C-alpha cells in the first residue's frame, strides 16, 4: 500500500496513526542507516544496534520533521548523532565513516554497457577502498553527495558549511579521489574500463 508513495505522504500517514507506514520508511532506509553506522564502528552487531536506535529516535521525533528538506537528510543527521553518541560511550577503535561508496566515480568511466555483477562488485570494492584513503572531510562530502544523494544545499546543512564552500570542497575531493585511484589502482582501473 505504501510502496508507491513518496516519503512525505508516508510520514503524513504515520502521523495520523498508520504505523505500517513507518515500516515502509524503515525498509527504504535501513541499508542506508546501517551503512552509516557500520562505517564508524566496523562491527555488525553494534551497527545493527545503532540502526535500531536511529529508527526509534526518528519515529519518536517524526512530528518534528520539517518537510522543507528530504527525509533522508534528516535521517542522516539522526544517524550521525546516534553513531557519535554510541562511539563516545563505547570508545572502541574507530575507522572512518567516510569510506562510503562513490560507485558513480568509477562507473562513469566505464565504457561498456553490460557490466556483469562480478565486475560491478569489483568496482564497488575498489571505490570503497580508495574512499578509505581520503581524509574524513573529503570522504564525508563525497558520501553525502553521491551515496546519500544529497544536494549541495542539503550537504551544506549537514556539514554546517556554506553551499559555495561545499561546491569547492566537493570539486577538490573528486580530484583527490581520482588521484588516489590513478596512484594506487591504475592497473585495476584499466581493467575495469576496458
UniProtKB/TrEMBL annotation:
One of its GO terms (molecular function) is sigma factor activity. InterPro entries: RNA_pol_sigma-70-like, RNA_pol_sigma-70_dom, RNA_pol_sigma70_ECF_CS, RNA_pol_sigma70_r2, RNA_pol_sigma70_r4_t2, RNA_pol_sigma_r2, RNA_pol_sigma_r3/r4-like, WH-like_DNA-bd_sf. GO terms for biological process: DNA-templated transcription initiation. Residues 127-177 form the RNA polymerase sigma factor 70 region 4 type domain. Transmembrane segments: none annotated. It comes from the Bacteria. CDD domains: Sigma70_r4. Gene3D superfamilies: 1.10.1740.10, Winged helix-like DNA-binding domain superfamily/Winged helix DNA-binding domain. Residues 25-91 form the RNA polymerase sigma-70 region domain. Keywords: DNA-binding, Sigma factor, Transcription, Transcription regulation. Belongs to the sigma-70 factor family. ECF subfamily. This is RNA polymerase sigma factor. The lineage of its organism: Bacteria, Pseudomonadati, Bacteroidota, Chitinophagia, Chitinophagales.
